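Researcher: We plan to redesign the surface later, but first we want a full-length starting point. C-alpha cells attached.
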C-alpha cells in the first residue's frame, strides 16, 4: 500500500501550479522595529495605515489601545530586540512569502475552498503560537521559522526544532487556513478513525495547496522517517486494529496518535510521532483511488470522516 501512497503524493505535488499573484502581507515587525526612531508624524501615519493589523495584534496579545505608549513598549520589548535581527537575516524580503501565500490561495480556489477575504500581517513576538486568526486578520509570527539550528530554539526537543524552518512555514499556513474553516467536530461517539482520517485530509490539503508540496514535509517527517513508515505500514495498521484503537472513542488516544511527539508508542516504540496522520492519509489515498471525484473540502466534513462505511469504501488494509 505504501507504493500507492508515494505515487499519490507525487501526483498531488504536481497539482500546485497556478499563475503567480502575490498576496500582500503587512510587515508589522519591520515598522515596529523602526518605531522608536520615527517622528511624531511618521508614527501617526503608521498607526493610521496599518490600523487593522495593529489592532488585531494588540488585542490578541492583550495589550492596551493602539497608541504611542503601547507601541513604544512593544517596539522596545525583549522579543522585538532578540528576534527582529534574526528574522531580517532569514527573511530579508517579504515578497517571497507573499508569492507563496498567493499561490496557496490560488490553489485553494482551484480545489474548491472559499476562504474569506482578510488582512495578512507578519509579526515578531514571544507568544508560543506561530499563526493566529482574528476576526479580520491572520497574524504570521516569522520568529517561529528561523531554522532548526537557531540558537533560540536550542532548549527545545529535536522533533519540535524540525518544524521551525522556513520551508515548513507554507505547510503551517495551509493547515491554519484549512483548520480555521474546517475545524474537527468531535462528538461523544467520534472514533479514533474519524480523527485520523480528518488529520489525513489536512495532510492532503497541505500537499495540494503548498507549491510543489511533498508528503514528507506535509507530515513533518525527514526522508528517513517517511521511508520507515512506508516499510512498516502494515505493522502499524495491524497494531491499530489488534489493540482495538481504531474505533475507540477516547479523545486521549486520538490525541496521542496525531499530536507532535518524538514517537508514537501506542503503535510502535520505534515509529516517529503523529503516525495517525500518516495512516489517515493512506486511508484517503485508497479511498480516492475509487472515488476520485470527491472534493477536498468534503473530506474535511463530519459527513465524510464520521461515515460508518468509510473504511469499507476505502478498501484500505494496511
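Model: Full-length starting sequence:
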Amino acid at each position: 500500500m505504501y507504493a500507492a501512497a508515494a505515487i499519490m503524493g507525487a501526483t498531488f505535488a504536481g497539482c500546485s501550479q497556478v499563475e503567480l499573484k502575490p498576496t500582500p502581507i503587512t510587515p508589522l515587525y519591520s515598522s515596529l522595529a523602526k518605531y522608536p526612531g520615527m517622528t511624531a508624524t511618521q508614527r501617526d501615519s503608521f498607526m493610521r495605515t496599518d490600523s487593522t493589523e495593529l489592532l488585531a495584534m494588540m488585542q490578541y496579545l492583550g495589550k492596551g489601545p493602539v497608541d504611542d505608549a503601547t507601541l513604544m513598549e512593544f517596539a522596545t520589548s525583549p522579543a522585538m530586540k532578540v528576534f527582529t535581527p534574526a528574522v531580517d537575516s532569514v527573511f530579508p524580503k517579504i515578497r517571497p512569502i507573499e508569492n507563496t501565500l498567493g499561490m496557496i490561495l490560488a490553489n485553494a480556489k482551484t480545489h474548491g475552498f472559499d476562504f474569506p477575504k482578510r488582512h495578512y500581517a507578519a509579526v515578531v513576538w514571544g507568544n508560543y503560537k506561530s499563526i493566529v486568526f482574528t476576526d479580520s486578520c491572520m497574524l504570521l509570527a516569522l520568529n517561529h521559522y528561523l531554522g532548526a539550528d537557531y540558537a533560540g530554539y536550542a532548549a527545545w526537543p529535536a522533533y519540535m526544532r524540525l518544524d521551525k524552518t522556513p520551508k515548513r512555514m507554507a505547510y503551517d499556513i495551509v493547515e491554519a487556513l484549512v483548520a480555521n474553516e474546517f475545524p474537527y467536530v468531535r462528538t461523544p461517539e467520534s472514533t479514533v478513525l474519524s480523527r485520523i482520517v480528518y488529520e489525513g485530509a489536512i495532510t492532503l490539503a497541505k500537499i495540494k495547496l503548498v507549491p510543489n508540496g511533498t508528503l514528507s514535509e506535509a507530515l513533518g517527517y525527514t526522508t528517513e522517517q517517511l521511508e520507515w513508515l512506508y516499510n512498516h505500514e502494515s505493522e502499524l495498521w495491524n497494531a491499530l486494529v489488534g489493540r482495538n484503537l481504531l474505533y475507540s472513542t477516547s479523545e486521549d488516544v486520538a490525541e496521542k496518535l496525531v499530536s507532535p511527539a518524538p514517537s508514537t508508542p501506542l503503535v510502535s516504540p520505534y515509529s516517529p510521532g503523529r503516525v495517525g496522520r500518516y495512516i489517515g492519509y493512506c486511508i484517503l489515498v485508497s479511498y480516492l483511488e475509487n472515488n476520485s471525484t470527491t472534493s477536498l473540502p468534503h473530506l474535511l466534513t463530519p459527513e465524510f470522516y464520521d461515515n460508518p462505511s468509510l473504511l469499507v469504501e476505502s478498501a484500505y488494509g494496511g
